[in-house]
Amino acid sequence: MSAEISESEFKRQLQRGRIVESTEEMTERYEQMLRGLSVTVAYSETPLNFMLPAIQRAPTLEDRIQASAIFQDEIGHGHLEWRIAEDLGVDRREMIYEQPTDEFRCRYFLTCDVETWPEFVALLVTLDLGGGIMLGRDMANNTSYGPLRRAMKKIEKEERFHIRAGEMWLDRYAGKGGTATEKMQEAIDWAFFHGMEVFGPPDDLASGAVELTEYRLRGMTPDEYRQEWFREVIPMIEDAGLEVPVPYRYDEETDEYHVPEEYFPAHYDEEAREWRTGSDVTWDDVFERWSAADAANNIAPLRDQEPVVPGA
Amino acid sequence: MSAQRGDRIYEVFAARSHERGLEHVGSVHADDVDMAVLYGRAIYDEENWIEMKVVPRGCMHDTGES
Hints:
- The complex is a heterodimer.
- Chain A is mainly alpha-helical.
- Chain A has helices at 7-15, 28-43, 52-55, 61-87, 92-98, 117-142, 146-174, 178-198, 207-214, 222-239, 283-292, 300-303, and strands at residues 249-251, 256-258, 267-269, 274-276.
- In chain A, strand 1 (249-251) and strand 2 (256-258) form a beta hairpin.
- In chain A, helix 4 runs antiparallel to helix 7 (146-174), helix 6 runs antiparallel to helix 7 and helix 6 (117-142) crosses helix 10.
- Chain B is α+β, with helices and mostly antiparallel strands.
- Chain B contains one helix and three strands.
- A three-stranded antiparallel β-sheet of chain B has the order 2-1-3.
- The radius of gyration of chain B is 13 Å and the shape is flat.
- Chains A and B meet through helix 4 and helix 7 of A and strand 2 and helix 1 of B.
């Protein structure tokens, strides 16, 4: 059943702070957008095997326990998000076990494996920070769907721990010198580009994401997320003594960062696990790469992995 | 117990302190009460709750007031 209210009046009420608790209070379009959003966030906590190779290469047993706890947190987030999707008529079992893995609506970086420990650390300070901004800072405080807002409170809290753990490891390896610093820089170079695109394309190409803000399902647009992310991740990388892999320009008046077009969007070579930049890369290329991605890609490295002795 | 699908959803309530009382924190999907208690504790572990309760969704009734 959908609410008998005009779409524009409903949007106005939501902008004024109205909280929706059940499907009876929603318009059809709101319910459709909410269902899409919850499935996407739930899928983005599901093919978590992508980080296993890195966790298994944790340098100490203590690090490995901490990384496993982070992994477990993410599984918990998936539980909350699938629970919300179920209330909107989604069949969790079908989505996870019957849906072909190339149709998982997860973020692209989850289809790429995280192979080394520095890459895991870089993932925490870039992608967990991105998730923390979208789910925690924004949705936990702004989303108009009550159950989602409450679920995001827990996620916000835990993502903050992940980012803090990431920062601690980042400082440790970046400051070590020699190979450790080099590997940490390489990992940041790799993760930074994933981070820039995780929020989606620029607002003028992201009409769906903008519509989410009209229903206050999200409070911020992709470009606003990206700016918020730049404002944190750039000083974090530089304070650790590393370099930001793109030549950015900071505008003090607007407090905004600008990245030249030849660096964003960028092309990702999945075989070489390398980003290629250049002004010839278009958003259509990126959309094609995203839709061709398969959540099972990241299982391959697990199959032929050598056993790893912690600390070796 | 009836095997209605709605019976397998349990609402989870928890309290941070006695002053603040129970608040709704989310829900779990479980085959029985024991599993619902276990899932509730395992999934909603973000606070040191002093109390947590799970209630079958079908046992919650709206009084019609808003």
